[in-house]
Amino acid sequence: QKEVEQNSGPLSVPEGAIASLNCTYSDRGSQSFFWYRQYSGKSPELIMFIYSNGDKEDGRFTAQLNKASQYVSLLIRDSQPSDSATYLCAVLSSYDKVIFGPGTSLSVIP
Amino acid sequence: GAVVSQHPSWVICKSGTSVKIECRSLDFQATTMFWYRQFPKQSLMLMATSNEGSKATYEQGVEKDKFLINHASLTLSTLTVTSAHPEDSSFYICSASPVAGTENTEAFFGQGTRLTVV
Predict the structure, then answer these.
(1) Measured between beta carbons, which residues in chain A are less than 8 angstroms from residue B93?
(2) Are B42 and B115 in contact (CB under 8 A)?
(3) What are A68-98's pLDDT values in tens digits?
(4) Which member of B6, B49, B109 has the closest CB to residue A44?
């Protein structure tokens, strides 16, 4: 089992729709969870981090964490073509390493 | 937010030569820095954890004698790819955290270095 898994892509949504990105992790002792956006050929940029169960909202982005289910998600409301990128889920594991998921490619269709 | 600077952004080298990549935390001290490698259309793979003042911790399958890491100060870590081969061509990214092990630690990334070995 991989340490961090994400729903396979590519994911296509029409402009204005909600994009839902999912991530599961295996290390139950993990405490912090991150969502990064990466454009082709560029370094990842942090969108949100979350460490408490529940929802965390920031503008059009909502991160959801359920530690019991070892599940974290990212919702993007009112998706824009500029949101088209690869989204990486990352987990700060119980042994102090940031482990990345394989990424989900999102395409927002105008 | 915190800034991590990585240099160079891209480098082309001949097979058999060595290349050094620098990672600097510009406005915070980082006792720990991480080095990742990303092949095309793949996710970031952790190569090693760089600890200031001590030896780096390498992930399984990463050759420590080939990828030399030096973390001589709280703001600088270097990765040297020795005797580079074409299969080492990749995107190398460093990251650093202001404080390690805290609940809401953020990892800040350098710009990445595109290495091409010809």
Answers:
(1) 43-44
(2) no
(3) 999 999 999 999 999 999 999 998 877 767 7
(4) B109
